[in-house]
Amino acid sequence: MPKITNAKVLAILQDPYFDHHVAMHLGRERLVLPNGDPEPLFLPSSSCDDCAHMTEVGKPGSGREFLQMHHEMIRVFRFLLEHHDLKFFANWEDGAWHQEGDPGGESYAPLLWNLDDPGSLPHEIVGMLNVTDPDFLGKVFAGVKDRTGRNPNFNVDCRTLDDAVDKLGMFIERGIDRKANPNQVPDGSGFHNTMHEFLASREGKAAQGAEMNKLRNSMFNDYFWSLHLWIDGQYGRLLEHCGQGFNSSGLDPMNAGMLTHGNPHGKATGMSMP
After folding, report:
1. pLDDT, tens digit, 9 for 90 and up, residues 166-218
2. How far apart are the first and last CA of the chain?
C-alpha cells in the first residue's frame, strides 16, 4: 500500500506550506445555498490571506490556477527535500519524467506514471477501470494529447497560451458537472478527482492517515505524488510545445508566486475532496 513511510519525508510534509496549499484548494470551492447562490466555504476570518483571490472551480482561469498551484507545490516539495539532504528522484528531460541511475544517498522516488500509455498505469487502476469504465483511460490520454500539442490533427493555439493552459487544467481536474451541463457526454475529463476518489475507495482503511480523498492526508500517499507528477508533466509538455520553459527545480516556499505570507491562517486536515 503506497503510504509514505520515510520518517524524514513525513516530517517534511508537516511543513505549513502544505496547509496553505489545502487552504488554496478550499478557497476555490463554493457551497450552493438552497436559493442557488454560491458561497465560499471559508469565512474571511479563517481563510489564508491570498485564498480570497482564488478562482472558483469550473470558472475561466481555474484550470490555469489548478496547474500552476500544483506545479509550485511540486517544486516546493523538491526544495524542502533537498534542504534536508534528500533527493527527489523525478527528473524532467525530453518531455518526460525520469528515474535513471542510482540516486545515491537518501531519496524520495515515487512511481512515475507514463504520460502516454494508459495501459502502463498501476494494475489496480487499469484493472478496475477496465471493468467499471473501459473507455475512460483512453479518453483521458487522448484528451491530454489533444491539449498538449501532441496530436498533429488537433491545433493548440500558442498565441493564447493562458487559454490553452486553462483548457488543459479544467479538463484534467474536475470532470462532468451534470447540473451545469446535463447533456454533456463523458469525454475523459476529471482524471484528477477520479483518481483521488477511486484510489481512496480501493485503499480503504489500509491507508489511514494517507487517504487519497482527504485533502491534507493525501499528501502522505505515494500515489498523490505519482498523480501530480503525471499532471505536472502534461503541463510541462504544453509549455514546451509552445516554446516556453518548464522549470522543475526546487522552489523556496517564501518565493512561491501563489504564497504571499509564510504561514497559513487555516488548516483543513480532515476535509474530504470536494
Report:
1. 999 999 998 777 667 778 788 999 999 999 999 999 887 789 999 999 999 99
2. 24
**Burial degree of 35 (CB within 10 A; 0-12, 13-18, 19+):** exposed
Q: Which structural domain, as residue segments, surrounds residue 223?
A: 7-255
Beta bridge partners of 31: 39
DSSP states along 67-100: HHHHHHHHHHHHHHHHHTT-EE--EEETTEEE--
Number of other residues whose CB lies within 10 A of the CB of residue 68: 15
* Cα–Cα distance measured from residue 158 to residue 9, given in angstroms and rounded to the nearest whole number: 38
Q: Check residue 35 and give its pLDDT.
A: 78
Q: Is 60 exceeded by the pLDDT of residue 262?
A: no
Q: Which helix (H) or strand (E) holds 197?
A: helix 191-203
Q: Is residue 225 part of a domain?
A: yes
Residue 264 to residue 39: CA distance in whole angstroms: 21
The span from the CA of 87 to the CA of 16, in Å, is 21
pLDDT at residue number 182: 76
Q: Which three cell numbers, joined as nine digits, stand for 43?
A: 469565512
pTM over 0.70: yes
Domain-embedded: residue 229: yes
Which grid cell is 180? 451545469
Residue 134 maps to a domain: yes
pLDDT-based confidence at 241, cuts 50/70/90? very high
Residue 60: CB partners within 8 Å, gap ≥ 6? 166
Total domains in the chain come to 1
Q: Is residue 266 part of a domain?
A: no
pLDDT number for residue 195: 96
Q: What is the pLDDT of residue 103?
A: 59
